[in-house]
Amino acid sequence: MGSSEESKYDIPYLRSLSRIYPNIASTATEIINLQSILSLPKGTEHFLSDIHGESEQFDHVLKNGSGSVRRKIDEEFGDILSPSEKRDLASLIYYSEEKLRLVQKSGINMDEWYSVMLNRLIRVCKSAASKYTRSKVRKALPADFAYVIEELITGRRDVANQDDYYNEIIRTVIEIGKAPDLINALCKCICRFVIDHLHIVGDIFDRGPGPHICMETLMDYHSVDIQWGNHDVLWMGAAAGQEACMATVLRISAKYGNLDILEEGYGINMIPLVQFALATYGDDPCDAFKLTYQEDTYDVKNAEFDRKMHKAIAIIQFKLEGQLIKRHPEFGMEDRLLLDKIDFEKKTVTVEGKQYPMRDMNLPTVDPKDPYRLSPEEEELVEHLKTGFIKCEKLQRHTQFLLRKGSLYKVYNGNLLFHGCVPLNEDGTLKEVSVYGERYKGRQLYDKIERQLRRGYYAVDEEEKEKGQAMYWWTWINGDSPVFGKGKMTTFERYFIEDKVTHKEPKNPYYKHYENPEIIDMILKEFGLEGPDSKIINGHIPVEAKKGQSPVKCGGKLIVIDGGFSKAYQPKTGIAGYTLIYNSYGFLLAAHEPFVSIEKAVKEGLDIHSDTILRENVSHRMRVADTDNGKNIKEEIQELKALLSAYRSGKIVEK
Question: Which pairs from 150-153 meet CB under 8 Å and 24+ separation?
């Protein structure tokens, strides 16, 4: 090794590096450490999409790693354990505290049970941790039991002295009453080790009752990235203070009977909305504003109030959207201006040149002469709600996390991840889209939109901030938005027009072309990916499995992983979500049945039944060296070799 390594890096840079590695010994040790890491198996990646607030199912899928924990149990115990014993062990790992309480009430000999379960958990934990360096494992261990767990999962039971030492640790833990705590710690470690990195491919929010709970879970997760979905962008816009986004968030929450998310989950006062709705629509049955709710969790006694709030905020939403469309003619969304197309005498509305009867004409706050103007009461309500969103500490914390960990797309280990679609023309070419007077397509379009969204939250200049905030709404609803992927959103028509012809939302041509290998290769190349192993991992459009639709497109080059996490979609999809695992051996795609309950999982050992519908093995087991992180490590090694050379040549003096 000589000057060729040094010549790539200037001496000031190497001197800066020498502050971290101050001598030959520390530099050489780190080179050895990094070089050895490259030979470890690639960490397991877990892909989830379209969670839509289903926090219990989301939490369970995270805990079981889409079957990764069960596979680890099968690998470790084979036929040694019966299927029921494996189920019990799996449910203990997922819900250790609940399972412990149940077993402690059963009257069995707890010391024997602790001993058996601790030995089984240690085997699974040791296996799950085997693909990581000892340093990485140590950092992941809970502080209270770091020493004990490290000794137990690194000990050699095949050596007599080690076996005695190992058994004595377990015996002592049981004797001093710490077995439950150690079991809890081991179970958390197993769930941590089976998945190295989590990808959320969009749509954490809306429809289900617990998006705020999902966000808290993600903020505690050890390694995660998020590709924003249209519903995430909507909530981010609301948090930034964009009024049309805020009204839409409220409308969707009301529609799905989930206003508790805002009041109890985020502490935003809904009483002014209740008061306004009752005062304005008190005698109105609001039949056009029926709710879609989960019967097992929704109190139907609230339905009448929620319908009135649903209608009240929907009318406000249409007004605020109209104001925004007029303020930004460059959005090209004049076809969405429909309040001014209502004929109050004929009780009709004109859509695309054709008149349709209105299902509901009780619109006391809509002035036919100025239909997009908020009434004084509506203005006061909007201002109150806006203050609640902007000043909600938890919502702001969640939004800032989405901005830190999220983006519109991600290129990771040879795969392209995004929610929605890459906008295409009818002929399959990349569509040029106008964003504030300039035209963009492909990757440049994504980058431009993302910059605007970040400005909408962080910009100091008021004009720039307003444009960025308006972009949140544009990204949620515009026909050219990559995360929406449809020609238009027909919310008004679905409420007020019976004729379903007006309800259609034509999909972007992307969805006609995503079985074409040439077009998929073109998209991958646009984002810097080439070769037979690169894939698109895609969320957003539910796959209707019961109609025979497959999530695997274009011979496996594109995988759609929205299969209906949301209970509202499950009657349509026939399943409860697709999730994807990418480990050192290849890809595993699973279709899940609905999650029943934590109680069933604990008492009966019920897991989410998953059918593996794609098993795609790689030609050789992937190592860290084959990953993006591996490329970074190789670059670090070259830098350290240059530093080592500089020490040895005397250009830099050891400290």
Answer: 152/122, 152/125, 152/126, 153/122, 153/125, 153/126, 153/129
